[in-house]
Amino acid sequence: MNATETFDWAAAGESLAESVTLIAGGARGTGRTAALSLLQLGARVAIVDLDPGRIATVAEDFAEYGTDRVFTAVADCTVREDVQAAAAATAEHFGKLTHCVYSAGAYRAQRPTLDIGADEWDLIVDSNLKGAFLTYQAVIPHLQRAGGGALVSISSLAGRTSSPFLGCHYTAAKAGILGLTRHLAKEFGPSNIRANAVCPGGVVGTRMNDLLSELHREQDLVELAKQTPLGRNVHEPDVVGAILFLLSDLSRFVTGATIDVNGGILTI
Ligand SMILES: NC(=O)c1ccc[n+]([C@@H]2O[C@H](COP(=O)([O-])OP(=O)(O)OC[C@H]3O[C@@H](n4cnc5c(N)ncnc54)[C@H](O)[C@@H]3O)[C@@H](O)[C@H]2O)c1
Fold first, then answer.
1. CA of residue 1 to ligand 1 center, whole Å
2. Residue 249, domain member (yes or no)
3. Residue 70's domain spans which residues?
């Protein structure tokens, strides 16, 4: 479409129905909710996750959409062969692969920097940052073959500031995602591939519940809500709204950008 023509809002909104999205870390939390929302919009999704039990559960939960709309694969995104195989299997299953969301990553509760060993650094940085790099390496050739597409990475408020609940490895990895996003936007813009990031504040859900109960800081969520200008905490659909915008043609000229989803608790 010519950029100056009358814009077809309905088509832009409906563009996701034609998409095939690989969601890394899609078996739980925000990735799972993003997968479900895409299915409800008529899209096809490949849910990729390290955890075979979660993959089995999500495959069962989404069975009503049929195998022509849902594909699942167990893969560790930090292992090149795993993600290459998952991307190739997705493209073969659906005949194409057009979009990718990177929502995978490990975390450790409130870690003082001087206590973090090299192995723990590698676990957090590899699963949150190297995994995104390897996943995008695997999917980009398929997006190029499809004529373009969109990449959306889930960074964090921690990547914009630091985290009160996690550690310096997590902050560094999430800040790294923002750099990776900017670089991919420049390098693959000419292939009609957009790359953007979403930075959620603490999201109410299984991970946050586990984290706060481990730290005995459940009350912090109440305090966070009070400090948030919009008056409540972040929920998964808040994050998914930004993801869907960045995947769809509604954001067709947005690339290299970061969208904060935090109710206004941090404004930059
Ligand atoms: N929950 C929050 O408060 C919050 C806030 C800001 C950002 N984030 C980020 O959003 C993303 C999603 O968070 P969530 O709360 O849904 O997390 P979650 O823990 O519920 O889900 C993450 C999924 O990623 C998978 N995973 C982990 N390492 C993997 C690997 N190496 N390869 C493949 N899959 C792997 C896990 O098995 C899990 O199913 C994460 O990147 C997280 O850092 C979360």
1. 36
2. yes
3. 15-260
Residue 225 lies in a domain: yes
77 pocket-lining for ligand 1 (C-beta < 6 Å):
yes
Of 92, 108, 112, the closest CA to residue 46 belongs to 92
Query: For the chain, how many structural domains are there in total?
Result: 1
| Cα 102 to ligand 1 centre (Å) | 9
CB crowding 202-236: b at 16 or more within 10 Å, else e = bbbbeebeebbeeeeeeebbeebbeebeeeebbeb
Q: Which residues are catalytic?
A: 170
The packing angle between helices 118-125 and 168-188, to 10°, is 40
Q: Which atom of ligand 1 is nearest to the CA of 127?
A: 31
- State if residue 80 touches ligand 1 by the CB under 6 angstroms criterion: no
pTM over 0.90: yes
- Residue 8 within a domain: no
Amino acid at position 227, single letter: Q
- Digit-by-digit pLDDT tens for the chain (268 residues) are 556 667 888 887 788 999 999 999 999 999 999 999 999 999 999 999 999 999 999 999 999 999 999 999 999 999 999 999 999 999 999 999 999 999 999 999 988 999 999 999 999 999 999 999 999 999 999 999 999 999 999 999 999 999 878 999 999 999 999 999 999 999 999 999 999 999 999 999 999 999 999 989 989 989 999 999 999 999 999 999 999 999 999 999 999 999 999 999 999 8
Report whether residue 76 contacts ligand 1, using a CB cutoff of 6 Å.
Answer: yes
Cβ atoms 23, 31 nearer than 8 A:
yes
Q: Is residue 268 assigned to a domain?
A: no
